[in-house]
Fold this sequence. Notes:
The complex is a heterodimer.
Chain A: H1 3-16, H2 21-38, H3 42-46, H4 49-60, E1 73-84, E2 87-98, E3 102-106, H5 113-121, E4 128-133, E5 137-140, H6 152-162, H7 167-180, H8 196-208, E6 214-218, H9 226-241, E7 245-249, E8 261-264, H10 265-270
Parallel strand pairs in A: 3-7, 3-8, 5-6, 6-7
Antiparallel strand pairs in A: 1-2, 1-4
Helix pairs in contact in A: 1-2, 1-4, 4-9, 6-7, 7-8
Chain B: H1 2-18, H2 21-37, H3 43-69, H4 73-79, H5 83-112, H6 118-142, H7 146-162, H8 176-187, H9 191-219, E1 226-228
Amino acid sequence: MSAESWLWMLAGELRRQGLDPGQVATVVTDARNHLRDSAEDPYQTFGAPERYALAVAESLAGPASRGRPLGPVRLEARGISKRYGRRHVLRDVNLTVRSGQIAAIVGANGSGKTTLLRICAGLLSPDAGTVTVQGRISYSPQEGGTMPFLLPDEHFILVGAGEGLPRDRAKASGRAWAQTLGWDDVGATPARLLSGGTRQKLNLVLSTLAGADLLLLDEPYQGFDRGAYVNLWEQLWRLRDEGAAIVVVTHLLNQLDQVDHVLDLTEVAGG
Amino acid sequence: MTGRRLFTVAEMTLRELLRRRAVIGLLLLLPLAFYLIRRDEYVGQSVRSLFLGIGWAVSTAALFSTIGARSIEPRLRMAGYRPYELYLGRLGGLWTLGVLLAAPFLLLVRLDVAGLNYGAVALAMLCVLVVAAPFGMLIASLLPREMEGTLLLLTAVALQMIIDPATTIAKATPFWSSREIGTYAVDHMSSDYLVRGLMHGAVVTMLLLALVATVSSVRLRRRTHLRRA
C-alpha cells in the first residue's frame, strides 16, 4: 500500500473518531511530512491506520498538568550548539524542564532531536553551551541499549547493580514496570528474539528501574501496538504527577496537547 | 559495591558469550585446527601453534564482546557504574571464558603428547589468554567497527605466525611470551625462556590494560558541559 493510500485511510479513521477537520488535517500533514522525510513504510512506522487513529484520539483526550504547581528545575540547557562538519545541527538551543513537567522535542528528521537529548544526557559534548541537571538522570536510547543474548531478568540485574539494587529487587522492579506497559510475560526470551515493540519496552523498563528524577526518552514508542502506546503515556503522566521531569523526543505531533512544553527544533533551525 | 558490580558485569559478559553456542563451537575449532595442522610433522610446533590459536580465539571473543557492549555501556555508566568497573568486569568474564576454552586443550595435550612439562604448558596457555583478552578489547576500543577490528586482529596474529621469533621485532608482538614459555615446556630449554616469557606476558598485559583503561575512561568520561545543580 502506498503512503498516500495509508494517509487517505487515516483521514477517514480520524473523522470516524470524531476529530474536527482542522485536527485531521494537522495529523495527516504531520504524518505525511514524516513519511516523506524518512521514506519509511507507514505500516512499520505508525501501524494500521485505524489503530493509529484510535491512539491519536485517545492521546488527545489524555490529561494535562497545566495549572498544577511545578517543582524545582531538573534540566536546564543553555545556548546549546552543535555541528557536524560544516552543518549546524543545533544553534543556541535552550530548554528548561521542571519537576512535574513533560517536555517534547519535535522536529523534522535530521533537525537534531536525538543529538540534543544525548547532549542533555551527557553522552555527547556540544560545541557550545551548558546543561545543568538535578537528581538522578535516566536515558532511553532510540535503538540499542540492550544486550542481544541476555534475558530481560539479566538486564534488570545488570542495570540494577549499577543503581545499587539487590538482584531480587531489580528483577521484581523490572517485572513490575514491564506489567505497567502491558508486558506480562517477561519470560526467558533473549533480547534479540523479542519483537521490536517488546524490546523497546525492555529499553524503557531499564530506564525507570530504580526511579529517575529526570527521564530522557528518545522516541520510546517505536514498534508499540495501540495498547502499549496508551499504557506508555499513562505511565508517563503518572511519573510526571509523582514529580518526575520527562523529556520525550517524538515525531507524533498530535501528542503535543498532552505535554507541558514543546521545543520544535525545526523552528529553531529556521529561526 | 564495586566488587558486586565487577562480578555482575563479568557474569553477564560470560553469559552473553556462552549463549552463542555456534560461536563457542567455532572458538574451540580454531585452536584445534592450529593444533592438528602440523601434528604429524613436529609436535612442539603444533603445541606452540595451539597457544596462538587460543590467543586468537580469546582475542576474537574479546573484540566482539567489547563492540557488542558499546551500546549499553553509556546506559550502565548513567546507572552508576564507573568506567573501570565496566572494563575490568568485562575482562574478568573474558578471562573466565579463556580458561574454559583452554582447559580441554590442556587435557588434549596431556593425553596426546608425552614428555612435556605440562605445568609450563598450562602456564603458557594462561599467559596467552591473559594477554589475548585485553588485546581484543583494545582493538575494539580503537576500531569499534567489527570488520576493521577483525582485519587488524587477523593482521596481528598472521604477523605473529610468520615472524622469526628470534628477531627483536618479534618481541613487540603480543603473544611472543607464549612462544617462549612453550619452548621451555616442549623443548626443555633453560628456565631463561620461562622467565623471559613470564616477564613479557606481564609487561604486555599491563601495557594493554593501561591502554584499555585510558581509551575507556575517555570514551565514558563525564562531559564538562554537564553540571550538577
